[in-house]
Design brief:
Elements lengths: L3 H10 L10 H13 L20 H10 L5 H12 L7 E5 L5 E5 L22 E4 L3 E7 L1 H7 L1 H10 L4 H14 L5 H4 L4 E7 L4 E7 L2 E3 L2 E3 L2 E4 L7 E4 L1 E4 L4
Parallel strand pairs: 6-11
Antiparallel strand pairs: 1-2, 3-4, 4-5, 5-6, 7-8, 9-10
Helix pairs in contact: 2-4, 6-7
This protein binds aspartic acid (ASP).
């Protein structure tokens, strides 16, 4: 695996064009997010910080100094993104008509990554793992937790030893919970989800929590399935712990 400066140099040497994919809009959201960072004492190392989803006039003015042309909508959007950073990692597992299996996980969709952080998504065995004899598995959610249990590989091994895909995923979630002594307060700080597809087509999705509070409402975890018999559909993940609203 290559990451960081070495990967950039390698790509350059092979003539891959360098493109800055950061839009001004996203840069503004990132700046708003940086404003929101605080240490244990509540100090912010950027400006006065922000506490409420709606920016104060002062906070908005700080962004407006950098982007004098920005509309009120754009500034409001940047603050919304800072409070509810987007995610977008996709794990995709497939079984074709010949019985061949494949799997992939997109490089992490986590917003505001620390430069140099690789995450779990591209790590074979953590973000994704496929064994033609048994099945495939993958993950989204907080990668640091997954790397520690090598989640996708552990799920495939569970299936190898006879567990149903659903139980194979829940077993790994239990291992993660155990590393926090099953303390709900600590576990509530993150989400993690696993997906599994067995060689015979049986599949499952499993989340640590029954749902996630998102923009003030509880969102459940689902995964998309297409078994070749018609349209794609959403199925509910099983979950280990019940989140109270
Ligand atoms: N697993 C990804 C990572 O930790 C993030 C995600 O799936 O949202 O990089």
């Amino acid at each position: 695996m290559m990451a960081g400066e070495g990967a950039t140099r390698f790509a350059r040497a092979w003539g891959v064009p360098e493109i800055n994919l950061l839009t001004e809009r996203s840069r503004m959201a990132w700046m708003a997010w940086k404003q929101s960072l605080r240490d244990a004492e509540g100090n912010n190392n950027w400006t006065d910080g922000l506490d409420a989803p709606a920016p104060t006039a002062k906070q908005a003015a700080a962004l407006r100094q950098i982007w004098p042309e920005a509309s009120d909508e754009m500034i409001a959007w940047a603050f919304e993104m800072a409070h509810f950073p987007t995610t977008g990692t996709i794990n995709c597992l497939a079984l074709n008509a010949k019985g061949e299996m494949s799997g992939t996980t997109t490089t992490s969709g986590m917003a505001w990554k620390i430069p140099g952080r690789v995450g779990d998504s591209p790590i074979i065995g953590a973000g994704v793992f496929v064994d033609q004899e048994i099945g495939a598995a993958g993950s989204t959610g907080r990668g640091e937790e997954n790397i520690r249990v090598v989640g996708a590989h552990a799920i495939v091994e569970n299936m190898r030893h006879g567990m149903e895909p659903k139980d194979a995923c829940l077993d790994v979630l239990k291992r993660i919970a155990k590393s926090y002594r099953n303390d709900p307060a600590k576990l509530s700080k993150f989400d993690i989800n696993f997906y599994a597809l067995r060689k015979d087509g049986v599949h499952a999705g499993a989340s640590l929590w029954s749902g996630r509070v998102q923009r003030g409402y509880m969102a459940g975890f689902q995964y998309a399935v297409n078994d070749g018999t018609g349209d794609s559909r959403l199925e509910k993940c099983v979950w280990l712990l019940e989140r109270k609203a």
